[in-house]
Amino acid sequence: MKGKSMKAVGFKKSLKIEENESLIEIEKEIPKAEGFDIVVKVNAISVNPADTKIRIRTAPDKILDTPKIMGYDAVGIIEEIGEKVTNFNIGDRVFYAGDVTRDGSNAEFQSVDSRIVALAPVSLSDAQAAVLPLTSLTGYEALFDRLRINPHEKKTILIIGGAGGVGSITTQIAKQLTNLTVIATASREETIQWCKDMGADHVVNHKDLVNSVNEAGFDTVDYIFNVADTKGHWDSMVELIAPQGMISSVVEFEGGIDLSKLQAKAAGFIWELMFTRSLFNTKDMHRQGEILSDIANLVDCGRIKTTLTQTLNGFSVEILKEAHKRVESSTSIGKLAIDYSK
User: Fold this and answer.
1) Residue 311 in contact with residue 137, Cβ under 8 Å?
2) Which residue of 35, 133, 238, 276 lies most exposed, with the fewest beta carbons within 10 A?
3) 3-state secondary structure 168-224
């Protein structure tokens, strides 16, 4: 494939998605696999809030010399492997979330580190599998690496943002791999039902969080995982977290929060960022490949189901713009995929 070109979609300036050049088509050379890298022919992707945030924040006051290619979920077929790759073969069907510092999956081919990749679930279509990597890695890491939950303990977790992609899969992982009682937030009839379908034991209203959790029978909760609004829910989380409890969040914010409010309870706060391992090339970076293998096995055993709710077909600027619009609306349930092959 060396020397051959491919189509990709990216941006050079941060613009509102409605503007003409918010996303642009790019022609690039197909990447080459070296070291631990594999080159994947991309069949399907998912669009996440991470994509829209990176698009709008990367270059608000400048024009990039090299277009930024996003895309942090993919399913595809391995076309080439680097000399250090030992656990994959050409022709394998894989899925992964990728690395925020490298070109993403909004392209016909993508080079990705094999250590953060796994064989895709055989029981799912490309679109069904493409929505899982980023969210399942985030949820799994939050539960077991950040909150350090003991799978055998019978405690409670409040998931704020239960109907979104991360909340949906985290609920399933928690119900399948721990003894936690899962309380998820939702406010609309359809999102409440979705949270129940994901396995939530209780669904509470984030618009009146403290009272709603209390009405469900809980004065406090042992763990909180916030995938919706850290700063907006901070006072409620402080009130609801149990003494010696732990809070984790994926949602950054401007300004500050008063961490000292957790002091009396000796409670903790910790960030989860799925990209940390690849961003810093941590010694345990391979752990992400292992987690994805576990997720694939749980899917193929029928214990976890896809969170796919919307599919767009084709690979073009117009299709990706539509996907960004839908994600930015913040009204989606579950996840959106784009099937390149249709």
Assistant:
1) no
2) 35
3) HHHHHHHHHHCCCEEEEECCCHHHHHHHHHHCCCEEECHHHHHHHHHHCCCCCEEEE
The answer to whether 269 and 258 are in contact (CB under 8 A) is no
The answer to whether residues 188 and 159 touch, using CB atoms and an 8 Å cutoff, is: no
Domain enclosing residue 152, as ranges? 135-271
Same domain, 57 and 178: no
Residues 6+ apart with CB under 8 A from 123: 299, 300, 302
Angle, vertex CA 40, rays to CA 34 and CA 45, nearest 5: 135
Q: Are residues 259 and 326 in the same domain?
A: no
Same domain, 226 and 292: no
List average pLDDT for each run of 10 residues in the chain, which is 342 residues long: 84 96 96 97 96 94 95 97 97 97 97 98 98 98 98 97 95 98 95 96 96 98 96 96 98 91 97 97 97 98 97 97 93 91 82
338: nearest Cα among 323, 318, 326, 321: 323
The overall pTM is greater than 0.85: yes
Residues 180 and 166 in one domain: yes
